[in-house]
Amino acid sequence: MENFKGRDLLSIADLSHEEIQTLLTLASDLKSGTISIHCDKILGLLFYKASTRTRVSFTSAMYQLGGQVIDLNPDRSQVGRGEPLIDTARVLDRYIDILAIRTFRQEDLQTFADYSHIPIINALTDLEHPCQILADLLTIKECFGQLAGLTMTYVGDGNNVAYSLLLGGALMGMKVHIATPKGYELSEEVVKRAKTLANNESDILITTDAIAAVKGSQVIYTDVWASMGQEDSAESRIPIFQPYQVNNELLSYADPEAIVLHCLPAHRGEEITEEVIEGKHSKVWDEAENRMHVQKALLASLLGF
Ligand code: CP
Ligand code: NVA
User: Which CATH number is 2-128+291-302 given?
Assistant: First the structure.
């Protein structure tokens, strides 16, 4: 685990194919109890946006490892009153051993990484959600025994989850299809980056056609149509995104053994129907559980255990 010690995880692409495999194997071993790690360190959580899964799964993971957690609620910290991030970063690294941050700007995460010596983990920014994608990859591996060669289709908004999923899937040798409405695509720069990570550029399909994207896919993935911070446009997005709803009709074009993933929280009747999220293809509850197992593996690895 030595090669992970002291590193940051700001993007899923900070990890190589082999490092992701190592983390997923460790997560599986921790989940099954084959391995147990004792890690008496302190994790800080600095979350500027709401969270259930990420906050609680990080907290439980650290407690199960034997460590402790400090919730640095920005509303009750000086950083919420405008103390510069560069000062906060240099002070926190004297008190805690590792810090997970959920914030808006990826640049702010980078500032923390630049000004502190402890590992900084991206717990979601407007740009990326790498911890989510580690859990998604573990869930897919549990279902199919492999990642390489599978087709994973993301349908919906070209957001933070879509970005990390595209990079992570490409890194792991998957075929990744992304279907978004026109005007809500991932940026060209993001797609270009993913193509450099993929085995073949042709493994990546970017389209506005949800049915064409889903055809024959083993993994169907969706997320909310309006992310945190985009609440004002939520209503106006509904008619635009309607053709991208993951429902039984869309699912009928996928591989009959396909699984359905969603990072949650879900809006039933919008990006996913009740019948699909509660149906036999849905693996969303295992996916949510796996957040805790991969983050335990990540914490232990970055802390050098
Ligand atoms: N999927 C996810 O990150 O959920 P939370 O916003 O509840 O943490
Ligand atoms: N794209 C969503 C993910 C929530 C876990 C958001 O950023 O709000």
Answer: 3.40.50.1370
Contacts for 269 with CB less than 8 Å, ≥ 6 apart: none
> What pLDDT is recorded for position 6?
97
Domain 2-128+291-302 and domain 132-287 have a common topology: yes
State the residue for tokens 């805690």.
Answer: 96
Residue 267 designated active-site: no
131 C-alpha to ligand 1 centroid (Å): 10
Q: Does domain 132-287 have CATH number 2.40.50.140?
A: no
Could you tell me the pLDDT band of residue 148, with boundaries at 50, 70 and 90?
very high
Whether 227 is in the pocket of ligand 2, judged by its Cβ within 6 Å, is yes
pLDDT at 1: 45
Domain spans in the chain, listed from the N-terminal domain onward: 2-128+291-302, 132-287
- Residues flanking ligand 1, CB < 6 Å: 51-54, 124, 132, 263-264
Residue 109 phi, psi (nearest 5):
-65, -40
CB 89 within 8 A of CB 112: yes
Q: Is the pLDDT of residue 233 over 70?
A: yes
Q: Distances in Å between the alpha carbon of 210 and those of 46, 125, 195, 287? A: 36, 26, 20, 23
Q: Is 143 a catalytic residue?
A: no
CA nearest ligand 1 atom 1, residue: 263
Question: Which residue out of 223, 245, 281, 293 is catalytically annotated?
Answer: 223
d(C-alpha 125, C-alpha 106), whole Å: 6
pLDDT greater than 80 at residue 2? no
Ligand 2: residue whose CA is nearest its atom 6: 227
Provide the percentage of residues in the chain whose pLDDT is more than 70: 99
Closest C-alpha to ligand 2, atom 1: 227
The whole model's pTM is what?
A: 0.98
Please report which ligand is nearest the Cα atom of 292: 1
Q: Summarize the confidence of residues 124-145 as an average pLDDT.
A: 98
